[in-house]
Amino acid sequence: MKLLVLAALLCGSMVLTTASEYSIYLSLARSYRFNMSSGCPHRWSYFNHHCFVYVPRSMSWGQAERNCKSMGGHLASVHSSNEYRYIQHLTSDHDYMETWIGGTYEYEEKVWLWSDGSSFHYTHWCPGEPSGGNQNCLQINYTPSKCWDDLRCDLHRPSVCAKKISTLLG
Fold first, then answer.
1. N or C: which end of the chain has fewer CB within 10 A?
2. What is d(CA 101, CA 77) in angstroms, rounded to the nearest whole number?
């Protein structure tokens, strides 16, 4: 009888260990499947065929753009109000700090451009902005209105990087 109880206890603990390991495996598999289905690397998030990441380290606009390029992207460009709200959401855990995105002023052409080369059509400038002068880079979350402001590029801010999702199957 004691042998039967011991065998039952051993089998039960093996089942529990296996179930626990299976639960961990299933959790990891779900996480992996989600990352694979979105196409975004770890810590990046998906929105509208792009991956985005908030970079809390303060850098100049140029340093932030180079940092984004080192991760395969650019500072984020914004093409709709929904996309802007999504990018702002990424900054919400950091008290909506003033943050670099990819807008830069091309002085000779007198136009704003996105660092990723996409068209600069959607804007969310604060009243009176862009104010010009030596302010050629775009920060978001300016004033309580959380609108856009042009700023000197050498000032340090956190940033949001973005990259297009590359398709794995051609």
1. C
2. 7
Q: What's residue 38's pLDDT?
A: 65
Residue 156, token pair as written in the block = 């340090």
Per residue, the 3-state secondary structure of the chain, as one string, reads: CHHHHHHHHHHHHHHHHHHHHHHHHHHHHHHHHHHHHHCCCCCCEEECCEEEEEEEEEECHHHHHHHHHHCCCEECCCCCHHHHHHHHHHHHCCCCCCEEEEEEEECCCCEEEECCCCCCCCCCECCCCCCCCCCCEEEEEECCCCEEEEECCCCCEEEEEEEECCCCCC
* pLDDT (tens digit per residue) in 102-161: 999 998 889 999 999 999 999 999 999 999 889 999 999 999 999 999 999 999 999 999
Residues linked to residue 113 through DSSP beta bridges, in sequence order: 104
The pair of three-digit structure tokens given for residue 13, joined into one six-digit string: 């603990």
Q: What is the pTM of this model?
A: 0.75
pLDDT in tens, 131-145: 988 999 999 999 999
Domain positions in the chain are: 1-38, 45-164
